[in-house]
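Q: What residues go here?
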């Protein structure tokens, strides 16, 4: 489990670095903001899944992680 925590944090940081290098324009701004939001949500939701109250809650929270990764 520790490995995924590290990997999701690393994923977020790499997305932030990518967004930092995107040209500053109106067209790219919306894309970069969305990438930052969904990539940071991956790690946050993964950590929330580790505190799930039941198996069903755990699965539900991992599905959210999956959706955010797909969006990223």
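A:
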């Amino acid at each position: 489990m520790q490995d995924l925590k590290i990997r999701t944090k690393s994923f977020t940081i790499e997305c932030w670095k990518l967004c930092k290098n995107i040209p500053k324009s109106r067209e790219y701004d919306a894309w970069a903001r969305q990438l930052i939001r969904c990539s940071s949500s991956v790690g946050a939701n993964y950590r929330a899944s580790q505190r799930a109250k039941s198996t069903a809650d755990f699965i539900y929270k991992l599905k959210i992680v999956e959706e955010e990764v797909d969006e990223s």
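A: Context that may help when evaluating the design: The chain has a mean pLDDT of 91. Helices lie at 2-20, 26-49, 55-71.
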